[in-house]
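#struct-pred
JK: can someone run the complex with adenosine-5'-triphosphate? inputs below
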Amino acid sequence: MTKALLEVDNLSVGYRTASGIQMAVDDVSFRVDRGGSLGLVGESGCGKTTIGMALMGLLASNATIVSGQVRFEGEDLTAVSDQRMRQIRWRRIAMIFQAAMNALNPVHRVQDQIAEAIITHEPELSSHAVAHRARSLFELVKIPADRLQGYPHQFSGGMRQRVIIAMALACNPSLIIADEPTTALDVIVQNQILNAIGTFQKEMNIGMIFISHDLAVVADVCTHIGVMHAGSLVEYGTRQEVLDCPGHPYTRMLVGSLLTLSDEPADLSGLVCPAGSNGPVAAAGCPVQAMCPSSTAACQRGQAQWVELSPTHRVRCQQAGEELFR
Ligand SMILES: Nc1ncnc2c1ncn2[C@@H]1O[C@H](COP(=O)(O)OP(=O)(O)OP(=O)(O)O)[C@@H](O)[C@H]1O
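RT: done, structure tokens with the ligand placed:
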């Protein structure tokens, strides 16, 4: 197996609240290879953004990494100093935030904002080199270079999101975290952005974590898929494995809801998430037991263990090997 670009091992993150530490991410492990892409998929509140922020060293002040390691290019990011993390953030790991297109400064030309992103991290570059880099980034995200002189309000939502992607790529990172980068866009523009993301990711051979609540979107751009529920990763595998042979009842629900034109709608009646079942980590038992029709008393008691379905495909469900799920 090749050396991973990023290895996350048993990461648990909690938030200090008035009622004590509330766990938002529980014992999550995955890897991302150079040029590989992992889609983290799950409903709102299941901990996806918290993972992204932990990797960027940008967790909220009331957050705490309770346990785990994040090895990136040979360094454990949970143990590096703030100063070292500032050198890694944006230069080596960049993030595209949810609805970031609204964060562009309306009073500055787009060119100046991209230039600032480059100069902040590479002050040694000449103005000629910075302008050249800005033009190539625009080319990469498919915006004509003559638009660089424009102001954000002269750009459509899709174009502004491309500008944000260009800014995230400004320092040539080796890992990019894209958190719901297309959620606020209409379907056509969403497709164009996904194509742009797929292109730069392959052309620049960078690793990517793509965060989304939408399995169809993740399936479009990612080589690997991690399914999350209530702070836990419940299934992890290659795109093919997860889509063709989903082993976890929750993944089956997600895959069953992916319709093609010729499909009959899947019967999902037994797998409805009760309100509040996807919040922070449950105190005990399998995180999915509240909505799983196959849940047993054992599922309510003990945390589900991982079952390996193949060297690259694992499922966190104590019944994954049972006839029930075949
Ligand atoms: N600063 C905070 N203090 C306390 N709890 C928080 C804080 N930030 C997030 N949480 C809680 O942590 C859990 C995970 O949130 P997170 O934003 O990581 O989920 P998510 O899957 O990214 O959801 P979304 O897609 O809606 O952003 C949620 O229950 C959320 O309410």
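RT: quick notes.
The mean pLDDT is 86.
The first strand starts at residue 6 and ends at 17.
JK: thanks, will look after standup
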